[in-house]
Amino acid sequence: MSETKKIALLIDCDNVSHNSIEGVLEELAKYGMVNVRHAHGDWNNASLAGWIAKLHSNAIRPMQQFAYTKGKNATDSAMIIDAMDLLHGKTVNAFALMTSDSDFTPLVLRILESGMPVYGFGEKKTPQPFVDACSFFVFTENLLAEREEKASAATQPNKKTTKELRSEAGLVKLLRTAAEQTSEDDGWSSMGRVGQYISNNSSFSSINYGYKKLGDLVRASELFHVQMRNGGTAMYIKDSRKAKDTNL
Known about the structure:
There is one protein chain. By secondary structure, the chain is an alpha/beta fold. The chain has two domains: 5-151, Rossmann fold; 162-239, Nucleotidyltransferase, domain 5, CATH 3.30.420. Helices cover 38% and strands 20% of the residues. The strands form two sheets. The chain has a six-stranded parallel sheet with strand order 3-2-1-4-5-6, with helices on both faces. Strands 7-9-8 form a three-stranded antiparallel sheet. Helix 1 (21-28) links the parallel strand 1 (5-12) and strand 2 (32-41). Helix 8 crosses helix 9. The longest helix is centred in the first third of the chain and has 16 residues, at 74-89. It starts with a strand and ends in a 9-residue tail after the last strand.
């Protein structure tokens, strides 16, 4: 059994909304224990009032950073220093950065060089270079929508339809490549290996398409034949463009 990851969550409060923090913590709980939770910002700034209300209830430690020079973002530098201290202190083995600022892209690359994954969370305005650099990236608006849907049983998840999924050329290519690269001699691919291949090669997250699990998104895309093995506990897929298996 693999060791539970110890995750450091660093929040750039100047560039991301407080509204989705619970959703971020719920998502990170899938991957490990968030034992470091630091929120960076100038807490004298009235614009962070929303964040202040979230600190105690989510066990987040506020990291004060005064704005020494008008127009300069001192929070960025403080957060980078914090990350480097944690990296070299070896108290965590994964990082999560909650920000919509692409200036943190070099930090992501540095952490990845140390062999640690970086989970990114930011608003849809986040520049693509930062999104692509992360081990996976989730748009916080999607996490907020998911929580709202849980609160209202009558609200249906905003999932992309089969047609919409198949119109995403990048997504289709990613899924088919992952299945091809992990296929066994019989042409079938274990969903577990497909997911691992995708996480190793992209910042993809099925949540951004309205699906909690990759397997559910794959089924909805209708790009693959699906076969359940081991008493229905293991999912295998095969590109539907290939000849249909006689054992289906």
